[in-house]
Structure formats: C-alpha cells, structure tokens
Write a structure and sequence with these properties.
single chain; globular; about 15% strand; alpha/beta; about 35% helix; Rossmann fold; seven-stranded parallel β-sheet; about 180 residues
C-alpha cells in the first residue's frame, strides 16, 4: 500500500503527482545525471533531526554532489555557523520565481538549472513553490527531501518518521560520495 498521501490534505495537487522515493539511492543518480542541479534549503533544516540537524546533511549533499546552495529565510545562519558559505541567500519565493524565468541564467550566469532539490522549507511554502515550478518551469525536475510527501514535486519521499528520514539523507550523502 502506498504511503504517498499529501500531508496537507485540504489542498488538491491535481492529476500529476510526485513519484514516491522509496529508495534514497535514486537521488544521487538524479544529481549525477543532472547537468545543473541546485539545492534550496529553508530554516527548518536548522532544528529538525536526530543526532544532528538536517542542515549538516544539506552541506554534505552540496559538497559531495558539487551542488550550488540557496539558503532561504535565516538558514544562512546555520550554514555560516558550520563554516559553509552558500552560493546565495534569498527568499523561497524569489528563487522559485527565478527558476521559472526562462531568461534567468542561474546564480553563476551559466544557464538554467534542470534539477532542484528542496529541504527545510515549511510544508505549506514548499507546496506552493513546487506547484509553481510544476506548472511553469518546463525543463525543471524537482525533488522534495522533506519528511512528508509533496505531491507537486517530481519525486518525493512518502510520509516517513524522523529516523527513516535521517537514514535516507545519510544514504543520499553516501551515494553521492560513492560509498
């Protein structure tokens, strides 16, 4: 039985829904295959987690996968505290609008991104961001790395408990490091 039910049940995602990420090994394969991936990290990555906050895994994903990072809200504080400088810091809606803009050439001026990984955004904000990207960013695939199923993403974890979520984040890091 599928566990892929939107955590925010009052909203309707429409007929196209995210594929469930039941195997975290899929994410490193997607990142390695992407020409221009990007990681968007929100402030909830600062304080959710088991033995360490998820922002630690975001940093490891960024380093291992050579993925540029956009910190939203006050997530920048957590990155800098850990000695990691994100490529940019901006509101979640701002980066979402830029990803939808076909004339935007990216943070480095080298072109549009083809894969966006999102983690640490409040569920309802990530829902809206992913909905906009699903409908208006034609060449962009999205991966929600949160604990709750995001039907507007291209791929999303099903609703999982915290221990399984952390295990999945570790598997993603290990896959990107080639372990």
């Amino acid at each position: 039985m599928s566990r892929a039910v939107a955590w925010q049940t009052a909203e309707v995602a429409g007929p196209m829904k995210a594929q469930e990420l039941t195997k975290p090994e899929v994410v490193p394969a997607l990142v390695k295959r992407a020409k221009r991936p990007i990681l968007i990290v929100g402030h909830e990555a600062l304080d959710e987690g088991g033995d360490q906050p998820p922002i630690v895994y975001a940093i490891e994903i960024a380093k291992a996968g050579k993925v540029p990072v956009v910190a939203t809200a006050h997530a920048i504080r957590g990155f800098l505290k850990r000695g990691f400088k994100p490529d940019s810091s901006m509101p979640a809606m701002d980066i979402a609008n830029r990803l939808k803009d076909p004339s935007w050439k990216g943070l480095d001026g080298k072109g549009q991104y083809d894969l966006a990984l999102l983690m640490g955004l409040p569920y309802y904000i990530e829902w809206v961001v992913l909905s906009g990207l699903k409908h208006f960013a034609d060449n962009l695939k999205t991966v929600s790395l949160g604990r709750y199923y995001q039907p507007n993403a291209t791929w999303s974890f099903p609703n999982i408990d915290q221990a399984e979520w952390i295990k999945n984040l570790k598997a993603i890091v290990n896959g990107l490091e080639g372990k």
